[in-house]
Amino acid sequence: MNDLSLANRTGLPDALKVLLAEYPRDDWAAYPGFDGLIRFWLDRHLMLRRLMSGMRSGTEALLDRNLEGPRYLAMISRYGGMFVNGLHEHHTVEDTHYFPRLSAKDARIEKGFQILDKDHHDLDAFLTGFVSRANDVVGAGVDRENLQTTAGRFQEELTKLERLLDRHLVDEEELIVPVILRYGSADLG
């Protein structure tokens, strides 16, 4: 059996993509059911991706000495807090409200929701390292050399988390959006 852990998978198994085959990603916006909940959901994912991208580009700019320390520290503090809080809120709502309802709609993809739920727990473990490194950055203060060193370590954690988050979000989108397109969202609240 393939390793379906977040750290090792390259996508969901084909057996869980049965609805994606019927509702290909490139066609999603053409369906009447795309607006509303789906658009909101994808916007939340886009927000998380943009926060990660902003932290990555800001860290690269600092490491290249194209961004001043105080500005970088303010950005990491703001974006990092928004990211961690937003991700926790998003995953809590999914785990407690959406996943149970969506997984009941089609037994063929129920295993996919178990994988996504496990991803949330795995991401929490990676978030611990991310938060620790972000706190190191903020605690480094404006001493340029100390900040450069801690930002370099933060960049490693950020790169790892960004890759895992993207894998999770893509898999989640390719499982959930087709379910909603096929079965609707009236009972999802």
Shape label? elongated
Mean pLDDT: 93
CATH topology: Four Helix Bundle (Hemerythrin (Met), subunit A)
Structural class given helices, strands, pairing?
mainly alpha
Cα end-to-end separation? 36 Å
Notable characteristics:
elongated, 0% strand, 189 residues, Four Helix Bundle (Hemerythrin (Met), subunit A), 5 helices, mainly alpha
SSE blueprint and pairings:
Layout: H1 18-22, H2 37-63, H3 69-103, H4 110-140, H5 144-183
Would you kindly provide a written description of the structure presented here, covering whatever features stand out?
With 189 residues, the protein is mostly helical. It has one domain: Four Helix Bundle (Hemerythrin (Met), subunit A) (Up-down Bundle). The chain is 73% helix and 0% strand. The chain is elongated.
Task: Describe this structure in a few short sentences.
This protein is mainly α.
